[in-house]
Design goal:
Elements (H helix, E strand, L loop, with lengths): L20 H18 L4 H15 L1 H14 L2
């Protein structure tokens, strides 16, 4: 799995999310695969870490973020 083992001692932020169809099935299956590899985890924690991992790996977003940070400097 691309997602590393999650440290469940991290601060958790409340996130409300409704999924249906393929996204719901995929997340449930990912949760099962994650549990087999690393141990059971709540779907809310898993979804938050999937989102964080995606954001961190999005090179376009990271470039945009760096450019914006440069614009704000005096």
């Amino acid at each position: 799995l691309a997602l590393p083992k999650i440290d469940t001692e991290e601060k958790v932020v409340d996130l409300r999310l409704k999924l249906k169809g393929k996204a719901a099935v995929d997340l449930a299956e990912y949760q099962t695969a994650y549990a087999e590899a690393n141990g059971a985890i709540e779907v809310e924690i898993l979804a938050a870490h999937i989102l964080a991992t995606f954001i961190e790996s999005d090179k376009g977003f990271q470039a945009w973020r760096r450019a914006r940070a440069g614009e704000r400097r005096p």
